[in-house]
Amino acid sequence: MTDGSSTSGPERSTRIDAGAAHSARVWNYLLGGKDNYAIDRQTGDMILRMFPDIARIARVQRAFLARAVRYLAGEAGIRQFLDIGTGLPTADNTHQVAQRIAPESRIVYVDNDPLVLVHAHALLAGDPAGVTDYVEADVRDPEEILREAARTLDFTRPVGLMMLGIMGQLPDGDDPWAIVRRLLEALPSGSYLALSDGTDTSATLNEAIRIYNQNSAGSYHLRSPERIADFFEGLELMEPGVVTTCLWRPDFPALDPFSTEVDAICGVGRKP
Predict the structure, then answer these.
(1) Which segments of the chain are extended strands (E)?
(2) The whole model's pTM is what?
(3) More confident residue, 136 or 208
């Protein structure tokens, strides 16, 4: 989970609220990171007690990011990435995975969490052959994202749009599908969307997220697999399509078929 909450004005990059749990910091805690506060750990532990698999979902989603970027930078030949809702840096960030394959890759990270901005210097240490940049913006403002990202990315060439866990930050009333469509409209043919989010397929997870929303500065909105698949409307889905996150081109086949079941799905689609 990363944050899509709305902030604006010059205070956006300086205000850090340590008194309320924040999705980027809670997710960092679930991934074993240390860039979080006591309230984030308390909220994370509460969710873990209710739904122990949430930490596994966090790790599975992070592993999907690496596999998707390897595919895009390798087989698909993408050399530009727009990663929205990047969250706090951990291992195998988008620029690290892409630039290991193609050092000349250009990556723009987008987030609106002040704590992420504090740690942005870690994201900026990319391969000198490429470019790694950071934009502070809200996912609800695709025009600002596109305008700022255009300083680094060439929108006449294909782009890999990474949106992992970010659309769940928006309620249906914000029409997250329209936001994805607007971002894709600005990208040329041959661009890709990699997206994953949590599903409403577990009553226990649904209840855990309900409690989380009551104790967090932001909120997360689980959706049905069908509604998440709608984000790929008009795109050519890469095999194996929109699937549970463990099953998208796994590095190793699962020995236990039940280990592939997580309440999150993902996919990668190509713009015709």
Answers:
(1) 80-84, 106-111, 131-136, 160-164, 192-198, 236-237, 243-244, 264-270
(2) 0.84
(3) 136
